[in-house]
Every structure is written in C-alpha cells, then in structure tokens.
Amino acid sequence: MISFDESSREFIARNVADMGKAVLTVGFASYFFEKLPIYYRISFPLMGVLLVIVAIFIHAMRKGGKQ
Q1: pLDDT tens-digit readout, 15-28
Q2: Which residues, 6+ apart, have CB-to-CB distance to 3 below 8 Å?
Q3: What is the maximum alpha-carbon separation in the chain?
Q4: How far apart are CA 23 and CA 46, in angstroms?
Q5: Tens digits of per-residue pLDDT, 45-63?
Q6: Is 6 helix (H, G, I), strand (E, B) or coil?
Q7: Exposed (0-12), middle (13-18) or buried (19+): which is 62, by Cβ within 10 Å?
C-alpha cells in the first residue's frame, strides 16, 4: 500500500472533495444535463457523492486512523 504523509493526504482529500462538489453542483444546476440520457443523469450525482465519501475517508485516516 502506498503511504502518504499527513499533508499529502489532506491535499488529496480536499481535491477529491472539491471534484465531488463540482460534479454535484454542475449536475444539479445545469440545463445541459437535462438533455443527457438517464444513465448519465443518474451516474453523475452518484459519482459526486462517491467522491465526497472517499474524501471523508481519506481525511479520517489522517485524524486518527492507524498509520
């Protein structure tokens, strides 16, 4: 397993969370997504939520998890 120091983990977690928030925001607020097929309209919000959850787990490892 790849081991990152605390500052790298925090940086990765913040960027992944920002990507997830951007996908959710654009997906819900854009008229463009209204014209896409249903599987894209479902997968983009799911991907955004998944990225936010991954960022939470990465950040949680930094706070108190085993190193």
Answers
A1: 888 888 887 777 77
A2: 67
A3: 46
A4: 9
A5: 888 788 888 877 777 665 5
A6: helix
A7: middle
